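Hi all, long-time lurker, first post. I run a small reading group and we've been trying to get comfortable going from sequence to structure in the token notation. Rather than ask abstract questions, I figured I'd post a concrete chain and ask someone more experienced to write out its structure so we can walk through it together at our next meeting. Sequence below, copied exactly:
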Amino acid sequence: MIRITFTEEEIEKLRYEQLHHPHPRVREKMEVVHLKSQGLSHKQIGKICNVTQPTVRSHLKTYFSQGIEGLKTFCVQKPRSQLHSYRTSIEEEFRSRPPATVPEAADRIEQLTGIKRGHTQVREYLIHIGMKPRKVGTIPAKADPEEQQDFLKKTPTDT
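-- Answer (accepted) --
Happy to help. Here is the structure in token form:
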């Protein structure tokens, strides 16, 4: 169990940040440490804050080593696709010759980069780079062009 002594000033800062910090993750960290300053056990803190025991220990270790300012910092890691480094070449290729279907796009991406992706992932990637799926309109099989022109020339009062 981590034993930390708190001053009244630190407790006030924790209480203030717990309620007023703009980011919810930082507020959670402040709440964990504030509850520890009130003498609660790690198990009780975990239940109240709805976090795991390793998370409670992690927040307390951060506070112990870096103080309140350390609790305010965090990094969110977003995974990057392997296709990210080929983005410009894929975009240029698809802007010059847009793929008709997602399977065609997947095949062409594999030919360009050597990276094979499923249809769902390719669809998501195309949306991510700003390409939109287009549907081709259909023309009725028995359409008469002359009747269509007559219809377009008529006004609503001609009926």
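A couple of things your group might point at:
Residues 90 and 96 are 10 Å apart (CA to CA).
The mean pLDDT is 86.
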